[in-house]
Amino acid sequence: MDNDLKITLQDEEGQEQNYFIVYTFDNLDNTRHYTIYTDYKEDDEGNISYYAMYQDDTDEEGVFHPCESDEDWELVDSVLSSFLEE
C-alpha cells in the first residue's frame, strides 16, 4: 500500500476521498485506458472493494469516466483477478 500511487476523487456529494491506484492497463480494442483503484477499507466480511474508471484516447487529459457497462466490468474483473493472483 505504501508504494501505491494515491489519487483524490470527489464523491457524489462533492467530498474529496483518497484512493490508491492498484493497476492500470490499456484495451487496444476500444482505445480505453483503465485505472483500477481502492480505498483499502474492508467491509464486515473482510472484503476490499475495487473501483475502475477509464479514459478514451479522444478525452482531454484528466477526464475519466466510471466503468458502468457489463463489458467494461467483465474486462476489469478479469484483469484484476489475474493481477491479484500474481
Compact description:
The protein is an alpha+beta fold and 86 residues long.
What does the secondary structure layout of this molecule look like, with pairings?
Elements: E1 5-10, E2 16-27, E3 32-42, E4 48-56, E5 65-66, H1 70-85
Antiparallel strand pairs: 1-2, 2-3, 3-4, 4-5
Describe this structure in words.
- It is a single chain.
- The protein has 86 residues and is α+β, with helices and mostly antiparallel strands.
- Helix content is 19%, strand content 47%.
- The protein is built from one helix and five strands, in the order E-E-E-E-E-H.
- Strands 1-2-3-4-5 form a five-stranded antiparallel β-sheet, with helices on one face.
- A hairpin with a 5-residue loop joins strand 3 and strand 4.
- The radius of gyration is 13 Å and the shape is globular.
- 10% of the residues are buried.
- The model has no long low-confidence stretch (mean pLDDT 90).
* Number of helical stretches of at least 4 residues: 1
Low-pLDDT residue intervals, each spanning 5 or more residues: none
- The residue-averaged pLDDT reads 90
Main β-sheet, in a few words? Answer: 5 strands, antiparallel
Summing up helix and strand content along with how strands pair, one would put the structural category as: alpha+beta
Beta-strand residue percentage: over 45%
Question: What general outline do the C-alpha atoms trace?
Answer: globular
What is the count of β-strands?
5
End-to-end separation in angstroms reads 16 Å
Radius of gyration: 13 Å
Strand order of the largest sheet: 1-2-3-4-5
